[in-house]
Write a structure and sequence with these properties.
This protein is an alpha/beta fold. It has eleven helices and 22 strands. The strands form two sheets. Strands 10, 11, 12, 13, 14, 15, 16, 17, 18, 19, 20, 21 and 22 form a 13-stranded mixed beta sheet that branches.
Length: 552
């Protein structure tokens, strides 16, 4: 019996772990991955490139290098690469000689570098053939002058600057530029004010989305060995779910030999990208010895593994095909509504003037159930610990308030020792509400009328926190009427007047809504989180929320 149970679990695990790539209408089929590399000075040395390729056993599709703003457009390098069949990939860095204090976003917005940008665009037009430009990369890190953390976490300033550079380059003739927007795999600092998606400049400004990530291993005092999945999985899933009309690439990557087995990391990279990350269409290897030895030929075993991976037929080498690949993705505005990922909808019903726990309205409503491990339960596998939580709710409304009947099933009593904006780090119920039915459904950030609140209990006393307004909200009331060791039932009353946004709901209104259950079990910090719809980025992206439809 145990043997068959193990087979069930393994089968479900494989379906879950490799079911990342939705069959979205805008994505071509799994047609292989284009590869390229960066190596100091190689962009001007065709013989050196060919020497690397001869050893590897396959031609590269693109060559990447860095251009600071003390340098003009690299016309000679682009001409040489294009002539030899490579797509030029320029990381255009807005600083002078790597001086972090040399250029500010405000300088660029104020027009101080307009002449330089215009000349770059003119020279790109003179080149006349496709080239990739990755401007403002790793903006969610804290190591570049254009980054959010170095500019007061102002996503709007970064976006305005990106758009300014983009528009001025094109206005000057550089319409042959393929634009790459490139967040880092790990946000530093990793906080709500520095989420990578908040820096997205818009579909019309981005041709590819590139994600950067490195396994530093034990090479630095602060680093540890990080497998490919640990580096890229969360970012990748958010990208493909929220930007379905953009091809994804790895802008730059590498692995250290320190702290683990580099050849095994490389083997895993080729294996999992082919099997589980089918929407990654290109990657670039950072092939130098810098902070650590990133090179793919750092030793014989590593190089043999790299050669084996690159020589696979799924790894592509056509620079011309790579140059036009992004055009095969359907622009968001041209995707039929039926092809977009369908939002879940919950039908709330109007109740009587005073909705109580005894109201007949509850018998007319379906449960909205959030269960992360539903597949396992259906297979007869019941897990304990932080994996066992199930949240159920029914929702009614009237002219005065929204009322939720909430039932939580957990193998540990519902408890929380945190306060204020930290209550998510204990047992907590989070509710997201978009009270403005006129706001765009696909908005990437909060607008007027969007709120996130949390409900917790301290020694059976309710505690309600409003993260959007950064304060407690006493108008929201909870009525606890059934609390056992392994379950909790309560009524949550949310008056429409509890928020500054003046909402006058009416029958037929469709409000954005999400509900999330945080579970700490017996620990001092949250162990798991289950979300009705979306992923871990829900708390700043209403685009991920479902729809609460108010009906009779």
């Amino acid at each position: 019996m145990k043997r068959y149970l193990g087979i069930i679990i393994i089968g479900i695990f494989l379906m879950l772990s490799c079911g990342k790539d939705g069959n979205l209408t805008s994505k071509p089929g799994n047609e292989g991955v284009y590869w390229g590399f960066f190596q100091e000075g190689i962009q001007t040395n065709p013989a050196a490139i060919k020497s690397v390729e001869k050893k590897v056993g396959k031609k590269a599709a693109m060559i990447m290098w860095y251009v600071g703003w003390e340098k003009d457009f690299p016309l000679a390098a682009c001409e040489s690469l294009s002539t030899n069949g490579y797509l030029p990939h320029i990381v255009w860095e807005a600083w002078i000689s790597n001086d972090i204090s040399s250029i500010s976003l405000q300088d660029i917005l104020n027009g101080k570098y307009d002449a330089y940008i215009e000349k770059f665009g003119e020279m790109a037009a003179l080149f006349g053939k496709p080239l990739m430009v990755r401007w403002g990369h790793e903006m969610n890190g804290n190591w570049y002058p254009w980054s959010g953390p170095r500019n007061g976490f102002s996503a709007s300033n970064y976006i305005k600057t990106y758009q300014h550079v983009h528009d001025l380059t094109i206005k000057s003739g550089g319409s042959n530029v393929i634009w790459l927007w490139s967040p880092n795999a790990v946000s530093t600092p990793n906080c709500s004010s520095n989420t990578f998606a908040s820096y997205y400049p818009g579909d019309s400004y981005v041709d590819w989305i590139a994600m950067d990530g490195f396994n530093f291993g034990a090479s630095q005092s602060w680093s540890h060995w990080t497998e490919f999945d640990e580096l890229f999985d969360e970012l990748y899933q958010v990208l493909q779910e929220n930007f379905p009309n953009k091809p994804i690439m790895i802008g730059e990557m590498g692995t250290s030999p320190s702290g683990g087995k580099k050849s095994r990391w490389m083997e895993n990279f080729f294996r999992v990208t082919k099997k589980c990350y089918k929407n990654i269409r290109a990657w670039t290897w950072f092939n130098i010895n810098k902070e650590t030895d990133w090179r793919f030929d750092s030793d014989k075993e590593v190089f043999n593994q790299f050669k084996k991976g690159v020589r696979d037929k799924s790894i592509l080498m056509d620079g011309a095909a790579l140059a036009t690949y992004h055009k095969r993705y359907i622009p968001m505005e041209n995707i039929p509504t039926s092809a977009l990922k369908k939002r879940p909808v919950y039908q709330a019903k109007r109740g009587e003037e005073k909705i109580s726990k005894y109201s007949p309205i509850w018998g007319k409503l379906e449960w909205l159930t959030v269960d992360k491990y539903k597949e396992l339960r259906e297979a007869g596998v019941y897990l304990k610990g932080p994996n066992d939580i199930v949240g159920k709710s029914k929702i009614a409304w009237n002219d005065d308030e929204l009322v939720l009947f909430i039932h939580v099933i957990d193998d540990f009593p519902f408890m929380n020792s945190k306060e204020d904006d930290e209550i998510w780090n204990g047992d907590c119920i989070e509710i997201c509400l978009g009270l403005n039915p006129a706001a765009p459904l696909n908005r990437y950030s909060f607008t007027n009328g969007d709120y996130q609140i949390g409900l917790a209990y301290f020694a059976d006393e309710p505690y309600v926190w409003n993260w959007t307004e950064d304060k407690r909200t006493p108008d929201i009331k909870t009525e606890l009427f059934d609390k056992k060791d392994e379950s909790l039932s309560m009524l949550v009353r949310i008056p429409w007047r509890a928020f500054p946004f003046k909402c006058s709901p009416k029958n037929g209104d469709k409000l954005l809504f999400n509900i999330i259950y945080d579970d700490s079990d017996d620990a001092s910090a949250r162990k798991t989180q289950i979300v009705w719809t979306g992923n871990a980025e829900f708390y700043h992206q209403p685009k991920q929320w479902g729809i609460l439809e108010l009906g009779e």
